[in-house]
Amino acid sequence: MLAYIEKIKEISRRLLQEGNVDMVIGFRRGTVPMMNEPCFVKTPEDVDNLVWDSNCGINLANYLTNRQEKIGIVAKGCDSRNIVTHIIENKIKRDQLVIIGVPCKGMIDRHKIQAMFETEIEHVTELDDKITIKGVGFEKTLEKKDVLQDNCALCIHRNPVIHDELVGDLVDEQKNIDRYKDIRNIETLSPEEKWRYFDNLLSACIRCYACRNACPLCYCPTCFVDESRPQWVGKSIDPIDIRTFHFLRAYHCAGRCTDCGSCERACPMGIKVRLFTKKLEKDCLELFDWEAGMTLEKRPPLDTYRPDDPDDFIK
Amino acid sequence: MGIEPGRLHFSWISSAESTKFVDVVNDVTAGVKALGPNKTFLKTEAKVA
Ligand code: SF4
Ligand code: SF4
User: Fold this and answer.
1) Could you list the pLDDT tens digit for every one of the 315 residues in chain A?
2) Would you say residue A194 lies in a domain?
3) Is the ipTM of this complex over 0.85?
4) Ligand 1 neighbour A258 (Cβ under 6 A)
5) Same domain, A157 and A238
6) H helices within A116-255, ranges in order?
7) Domain co-membership, A30 together with A165
8) Rg of chain A over all Cα atoms, to the nearest angstrom
9) Residues A25, A44: one domain?
């Protein structure tokens, strides 16, 4: 990690000094533990603010939408896939970007870790694969692999798929991962059981939209939930309105979601919102052999037509 | 998401296929009538508009 930080700083400093980019988007330490925040570095002097550790779960592609500057951007595997998606969707141009690729070994789950302790966590440090948590009257060391974000534990694209610079050697990709066990379980439920399942899943949602705001795909100038003429969905926390919001948002991410986990990470209520997008991700893989953001060369399933597209559901 | 499969139908009907259109509409209404009113995906009262 330390080597990564030095390399990120070195590359960023060089890019800014040589005037190749107007800014570098990376992470700086957050004001609370486990919450590094996005940071726009515009001068070589400010490069020292940049950090890298296992708390960089936010997807930085979210900050590229419609930018006109030349930008250096720090990108782990999932960020790089969302950058590809952004380029495909004309939200940024490839030649505006210098992508600083970070081979990733997963981010830690702040919800999971906080749930292990009764009182507030004040310091989190890491050394190799050990995470040390400190607060008033306690200190505990955890194995990083036990507290990974769910999406990172299942990740099969840890290395950036697109990059101009690389801050370290590529890491081994995880093999033989069963990515969709939870989704298959939901698929076997009856309609009534599904209804109850999603009622429970969403019962804590306060409709703060943190999940949407953290998602690089949710860049529409006016989101359907904010529209009032026409008003597509009620703005209340009525369970039906909440359910409508989540299902529709997931559909808007179909064939685009990279399972970066930003949405789930952002949720203050710890709701597993990826269960929605993952179902569509699974369908895209099974029906269209598609994984989002893997290449600039292919158009996504939603804007291509093939005569042999599956259509059994149409009568 | 927990909606009965018979409640949702997809069909591809050309503007020239009037008889198919009639058949499909009849099938859909008959199917949905058989299921009865939708009891789940329903706002019981408008709490806030
Ligand atoms: S829906 Fe969630 S997991 Fe998918 S791209 Fe958006 S933030 Fe990432
Ligand atoms: S972040 Fe969580 S609480 Fe907020 S709208 Fe999304 S799911 Fe609901």
Assistant:
1) 778 999 999 999 999 999 999 999 999 999 999 999 999 999 999 999 999 999 999 999 999 999 999 999 999 999 999 999 999 999 999 999 999 999 999 999 999 999 999 999 999 999 989 999 999 989 999 999 999 999 999 999 999 999 999 999 999 999 999 999 999 999 999 999 999 999 999 999 999 999 999 999 999 999 999 999 899 998 888 999 999 999 999 999 999 999 999 999 999 999 999 999 999 999 999 999 999 999 999 999 998 888 888 888 887
2) yes
3) no
4) yes
5) no
6) 150-153, 181-187, 191-202, 210-214, 239-252
7) yes
8) 20
9) yes
Residues A27 and A99 in one domain: yes
Give how far B15 is from chain A: nearest CA, Å: 16
Task: Name the residue among B1, B41, B48 with its Cβ closest to that of A236.
Answer: B48
Residue A310 lies in a domain: no
Number of domains in chain A: 2
Task: Tell me, yes or no, whether A234 and A165 share the same domain.
Answer: no
Q: CA–CA separation, A264 vs A107, rounded Å?
A: 13
Alpha carbon distances (Å) from A205 to A111, A208, A209, A223, A234? 15, 8, 9, 18, 15
Helix (H) or strand (E) holding B18: helix B18-35
**Tokens encoding B34:** 């058989």
Question: Does A203 map to a domain?
Answer: yes
Task: Give B8→chain A minimum CA distance, Å.
Answer: 10
- Report if residue A125 sits inside a domain: no
Ligand lying closest to the C-alpha of residue A269: 2
pTM, entire model: 0.92
Question: Which domain does A211 fall in, by range?
Answer: 178-302
Report the C-alpha gap between B4 and A181 in whole angstroms.
23
Judge: B2–A195 Cβ closer than 8 Å, yes or no.
yes
Query: Are A1 and A62 contained in the same domain?
Result: yes
Question: Of the ligands numbered here, which is closest to the C-alpha atom of A59?
Answer: 1
A→B contacts (Cβ < 8 Å), by residue, are 191-198, 231, 234-236, 238, 240-241, 243, 247, 311, 313-315
